[in-house]
Amino acid sequence: MSTFTIDTSTSRATPTPVPGKRTTAPAIRSRKSEGKTEQPIVMLTAYTMRMAQLLDPHCDVLLVGDSLGQVIYGLPSTIPVTMEMMCAHGAAVVRGSWHALVAVDMPFGSYEASPEQAFASAARIMKETGCAAVKLEGGEAMAPTIEFLTHRGIPVIGHVGLTPQAVNVLGGYGARGREQHEAAKIILDAQAVSDGGAFCIVLEGVLEDIANDVARSVAAPIIGIGASAECDGQVLVTEDMLGLFERTPRFVKRYDDLAARIGEAARSYAQEVRSRSFPTAEQTYRAKS
Ligand code: KIV
Questions:
Q1: Residue owning the nearest CA to atom 2 of ligand 1
Q2: Considering 204, 246, 272, 282, which one is annotated as catalytic?
Q3: Which of 67, 102, 137 gets mutated to test ligand 1 (max ligand atoms within 8 A of its CB)?
Q4: From the CB of residue 225, how many other CB atoms can be counted at a distance below 10 Å?
Q5: 83 phi/psi in degrees, rounded to 5
């Protein structure tokens, strides 16, 4: 399916979207009704305009995740990610999409102090990027902030279970919910975030049984990552599922092996440059005869 026309007057032929209606937060929320979701929600991360163009026709939601800290910037965690990074990449993804809802992660330190701080940060993200929603991490403690934002015109995606911005408190990226009290807390967190008004919730890195309990008992759609097939939707980091990294977590399915294919293309290019077999007549400008 292609819903755009190519404007060939630009050097990279940036598509001009055909006017259409973007997926909205209420449309995503209404996919789950009376505890059931007929059509699972498809979410992938995107950080750049071109990747957004390629993913958009296939996704309900494009998430500009703060995982860009590791994937794009080579940072050791999501903690150092800045508002400037999220706004620049968020705007690029909005420019490259026309159908999916674009949600942008609120970076660590931009929302936890108070609902007012969260509102100022989320409003900046929405104004500078044109995105239609923000995502923030945290359970019961963040529910009042989610309520504050949604009552002021900011659709929010929650994120519970393994919350990477809390890596220093959690002590690592291992699956959550192995202890009874931890499992109960994850369910309470998801319920609080749903009651606060989140229109969907990312549930990351939890035991399958807990994910099933959360998906069945929480009103808002649950988007799993390292969770369960019973969730109301799924999300993956696009570069993981494309096989751009040699090492990926257990919950990632690789749908391609782009790392190997890029390496092979670069090897061929290098070999042809060194042997002067690139460029050929096909790639060089000559005077018209
Ligand atoms: O930052 C991110 O990419 C995310 C997804 C893994 C859900 O939060």
A1: 65
A2: 204
A3: 67
A4: 26
A5: -60, -40
155 is written with which tokens?
């659709």
What global pTM score does this model have?
0.94
Half-sphere exposure (Cβ direction) of 101: Cα atoms closer than 13 Å: 22
Mean pLDDT confidence for 272-282 = 97
- Between CA 220 and CA 210 the distance in angstroms is 16
204 is catalytic: yes
The phi, psi pair for 155, rounded to 5°, reads -65, 135
Of 93, 99, 1, 112, nearest to 48 by C-alpha is 93
Report the DSSP beta bridge partners of residue 16.
5
First vs last C-alpha separation in the chain: 42
Residue 6: which pLDDT band, with cuts at 50, 70 and 90?
low
Do residues 194 and 219 touch, judged by C-beta distance below 8 A?
yes
Structure tokens at 46: 């995107």
Q: Is 66 in the pocket of ligand 1 (CB under 6 A)?
A: yes
Q: Is 67 in the pocket of ligand 1 (CB under 6 A)?
A: yes
Q: How far is CA 63 from CA 9, 117, 171, 280, in A?
A: 30, 22, 25, 41
3-state secondary structure of 159: strand
The 10s digit of each residue's pLDDT in 56-65 is 999 999 999 9
Ligand 1 pocket member 161 (CB < 6 A): no
**What number of other Cβ atoms are within 10 A of residue 232's Cβ?**
24
Distance 270 CA to ligand 1 centre (A): 35
CB 228 within 8 A of CB 202: no
- CB of 202 closer than 6 angstroms to any ligand 1 atom: yes
> Is the CB of 45 inside a 6 Å radius of any atom of ligand 1?
yes
Maximum alpha-carbon separation in the chain: 80
